[in-house]
Amino acid sequence: RTSTTALRRIPQQFPAVAKSRAFSSTAPQNRHAIVTGGARGIGKAIALRLARDGYDVTVNDVSEQNLGFTLSEIEALGRRAYGHVADVSQQDAVANLIKASVRELGPLDTMVANAGIAQVKPLLDLTTDDFSRMMNVNVGGVHYCYQAAAKQMIEQGTPGKLIGAASIVAFKPFVLLGHYSASKWAVRGLTQVYAMELAEHKITVNAYAPGIVDTGMWELIDEGLAKKAGRKKGEMISKYSSELIALGRTSVPEDVANLVGFMASKDADYITGQTYVVDGGIIFT
Ligand code: NAD
Fold this sequence. Notes:
- It contains 9 helices and 8 strands.
- The protein is 45% helix and 15% strand.
- It has an 8-stranded mixed sheet with strand order 1-4-3-2-5-6-7-8, with helices on both faces.
- The protein has 285 residues and is an alpha/beta fold.
- The termini are far apart.
- Nicotinamide-adenine-dinucleotide (NAD) is lined by residues 36-37, 39-43, 60-63, 87-89, 114-118, 137, 141, 165, 167, 210, 212-213, 215-218.
- Pfam families: adh_short.
- One of its GO terms (biological process) is fatty acid biosynthetic process.
- This is 3-oxoacyl-reductase.
- Keywords: NADP.
């Protein structure tokens, strides 16, 4: 059932940028990162940030839609890009993703398990399928990526960084996002424990917990919340910005990518087992 397709053909949508923005010669050379769910949103911003920081990047997503754009933009930054379609909730598909990406771009240094899904639904309406799917993608996906990447790094005999997507809802309650919240609390848990287990291999494990980020996912959440509150689509995001976020604006994906860029850098070598919040100071009441 899982589609696993290697995308070797990289469309050239941004040839002009390619010439003008070669990456800095002081950036580390020949490092390889995988970013899951990197076709759009936060994952795309992370992939581009890592490319700017000198990484060659494997970009995974569950479908080919938009993937080519991310690959082109990485190439335009002067780095190598490899696209691989796979569903991270499938263990075999994740194992294939790692194998194929190492074959294409060399030893793996950093795995960013970013792919995730959201759903706005009250507890009393949640079905078993809703719950299982949430856990399979958001928890299973991160677990499979952490595990397979750790095995690869240990086989290589090199240090590495595992980075996963949590959320502010793993710290503070957000109504109608119960099963989503549980999945993100689970990412905090995996991150803490696997960090202890993998320390002897010089592999660090950390997670990022964004607040409200302007992406396709937030549009979906906004729509669900607005429907419940009898408001128009798009109204909730401005309400949250003005009433709930201390810094007075919602995040752009690059706000999150800045944190992940740090986590993937040498400067974060002594940090492990942590989940860092990047939310502009959210005050949920
Ligand atoms: P998004 O929906 O805009 O993008 C997610 C990408 O992941 C999509 O391209 C999608 O196709 C891909 N994806 C979904 N399921 C997949 C699967 N099974 N295998 C591979 N790829 C898959 O979401 P986003 O806002 O960019 O969120 C990225 C991560 O950040 C998610 O884990 C999300 O839970 C988390 N997050 C987002 C927000 C927010 O406000 N947007 C807040 C906190 C945490």
